[in-house]
Automatic annotation (TrEMBL):
Gene Ontology biological process: mitochondrial electron transport, ubiquinol to cytochrome c
Protein name as annotated: Cytochrome b
Xref: PROSITE patterns: CYTB_CTER (PS51003), CYTB_NTER (PS51002)
GO molecular function: metal ion binding; oxidoreductase activity; quinol-cytochrome-c reductase activity
Cellular localization per UniProt: Mitochondrion inner membrane
Length: 187
């Protein structure tokens, strides 16, 4: 239960970090590096897709109806929409086949995200990152290790402490109470 709660609440924390990263990018004008920015947008969409299919996995009322409503949005795609929805569902409605497919997507998408993240970092390495001072000279830069690696390690420990505390003391604070009711398409 500890790992499951840390995983579920960690997804929310992950999105907080992503939105802070996007806000920083907007503030410093990182969108001017179009290739790096566009790969970041693709990453955001992949992470959102992974979070959505992960949200369906507990198979509660909110999960069931979230899957039903969001997947039905794909039926608006011209020509292939209804076929696409039935393929995702694995039948004519959200059912056990849908749950199996979503579990598979939730397992496989992080590998795709890792690959796209490497591409994002490759483009970032080519263009260089933005900073508050706007410095681009190599003489003004400091090495990643030990300065930033220790700083990142401290941030990781603080995040781990926050997730563990949340999982131990307030495990369901970020969850919807309706999702504790088992999925029932008749309700």
């Amino acid at each position: 239960w500890l790992i499951r709660n840390m995983h579920a609440n960690g997804a929310s924390m992950f999105f907080v970090c992503i939105y802070l990263h996007i806000g920083r990018g907007l503030y410093y004008g990182s969108y001017l590096y179009k290739a790096t920015w566009n790969i970041g947008v693709v990453l955001l969409l992949l992470v959102m897709m992974t979070a959505f299919v992960g949200y369906v996995l507990p198979w509660g009322q909110m999960s069931f109806w979230g899957a039903t409503v969001i997947t039905n949005l794909l039926s608006a795609v011209p020509y292939i929409g209804n076929t696409l929805v039935q393929w995702i569902w694995g039948g004519f409605s959200v059912d056990n086949a849908t749950l199996t497919r979503f579990f598979t997507f939730h397992f496989l998408l992080p590998f795709i995200i890792a690959a796209v993240t490497m591409i994002h970092l490759l483009f970032l390495h080519e263009t260089g990152s933005n900073n508050p001072l706007g410095l681009s000279s190599n003489t003004d830069k400091i090495p990643f290790h030990p300065y930033f690696s220790y700083k990142d390690l401290l941030g990781f420990y603080i995040l781990l402490l926050a997730l563990t505390s949340l999982a131990l003391f307030l495990p369901n604070v970020l969850g919807d109470p309706d999702n504790f009711t088992p999925a029932n398409p008749m309700v």
